[in-house]
Amino acid sequence: MEPLPCVLTIAGSDSGGGAGIQADLKAISISGCYGASAITALTAQNTTGVAGIEPVTPEFVALQIETVCQDINIQAAKTGMLFSAPIIRAVAAALQDKDFPLVIDPVCVATSGAKLLKDDAVQAMKDLFPLADLLTPNVPEAELFTDMEIASREDIFKAIDILLEMGPKAVLIKGGHFDSVAATDWLGIKGRQPIPLMQQRVKTKNSHGTGCTLSATIASGLAKGYDMVAAVRKAQEYLNLALRASFDLGEGSGPPNHLAPMLIEQMKQGLLSDLHKCGRRLSCMDGLSQLVPEVRMNVVAALPHAEDVTDVAAFSGKITCTRKGEIIVSGQPEFGASVYMAKALICARKFNPEISCAVSLRHDADILSAIAACGYVEAWFDRGDEPSDIQGPEAATIEWGTCKAVAEHPEPELVDVVCDSGDKGREPLIRLLAKDFADLEHKIRKILESMASF
After folding, report:
1. Which of 22, 78, 147, 232 could be stapled to 103 by a disulfide with Cβ–Cβ 3.0 to 4.6 Å?
2. pLDDT for 389
3. Residue 277 lies in a domain
4. d(CA 367, CA 151)
């Protein structure tokens, strides 16, 4: 097997496992690299705060770095919590002749509010900046090192210029502290205009160790040969996914889920298998042919943290029927196989995250009567109301219409079906929503039973 790219992390130890060396090594490993470490301090902490800090002697920090680099081919490194001026100076001396990219995360304060950098170490940290290929301060850290308030785009540009003057080749000011719908990080590279790098903001209290995770993942990307912009973008995507997949660990702020990519790959295989089984059951369901639209039926199923159509599986050839009523499930379950239905499901999930499945049904009077008789909550949209700046691709229409229909319903979280009456060249459809495959099949059977009673 080919050796993995090696990344060295120089940071403090987090006994709670969510930040510092522990977070770095998890992020480095999941990025496909080998992680080595030099520990600068021991902390006693959990999700609620830091109870104590025991720094390592500067000489021993330097010895760790030197010993690792003498034997292991380090291809990138990052720093995190350095704590004191003597430790920072020891790190600077040990890295003076480095021949690999270095990411400096100038950690000052923990998520819980505990100070992780002594007041007299600020100038020493600035003296370390010329060794950085990338500096990754958050807004409070950037304000500390530039001695200015950052409240606007213009402030960010000015702060980037000031920080670049201190010697790093590039600066990434992280925008997580700004109150905005999207989280925008600003990447400034010497000789270039700052680049806004946006990610959808994740609503979670579990943000402990996000800076460590991001910087470690960027360093891993640089070790693998990515250019700076690509390394930052890929790290952002990973962190965003890890935040969406985060879970409550203790009473306070938990960490991102560093294993999210691996766990989601496992979920994907399970979801495809479950969708295949659902298709087999539907193919044997009496009367299902009555519900199949002219454009054919499809079932879509989303991963727990689906954000895109590639996170939603469907049958590649859809579901159709013969004139005798035989159900034919065509193709195989695949992710991204149904853009229209995936868009509808993702929109519905914004209002009710418990929804994970949907199926497209024929739109006719008997089926609508059966849906009403079952007590299912309906939401409707009229294609004629579609704004002119959206009209065009069908996927955009479905996305707009589903969001509009559910959002305008008095109880959006209770919606079971989203209907539209079609348009010229567009068949009217009913989209039945469900929490899982069992719920989906149960709802279909209820509709069929109701239709049989007419």
Report:
1. 78
2. 73
3. yes
4. 55
Q: Are residues 152 and 211 in the same domain?
A: yes
Q: Tell whether 386 and 420 lie within a shared domain.
A: yes
pLDDT at 113 over 60: no
Tens digit of each residue's pLDDT (9 = 90 or more) over 251-305: 999 999 999 999 999 999 999 999 999 999 999 999 999 999 999 999 999 998 8
Local structure of residue 304 (DSSP, 8 states): T
Supply 170's token pair.
């590039």
Q: Do both 236 and 300 map to the same domain?
A: no
In this structure, the answer to whether residues 215 and 275 fall within a common structural domain is no
Residue 386 tokens, joined? 């579609």
Looking at residue 310, its pLDDT comes to 94
pLDDT bin (cut points 50, 70, 90) of residue 7 is very high
- Alpha carbon distance 293, 417 (integer Å): 15
Query: What φ, ψ does residue 343 adopt, rounded to 5°?
Result: -60, -45
pTM for the predicted model, two decimal places: 0.81
Residue 78 sits at φ, ψ, to 5 deg, of: -145, 155
* CATH code assigned at 253: 3.40.1190.20
Long-range CB pairs of 43-46 (<8 Å, 24+ gap) are 43/12, 43/13, 43/14, 43/15, 43/81, 44/15, 45/14, 45/15, 45/16, 45/110, 45/112, 45/114, 46/15, 46/16, 46/250, 46/252
Alpha carbons 304 and 274: distance in angstroms, whole number? 14
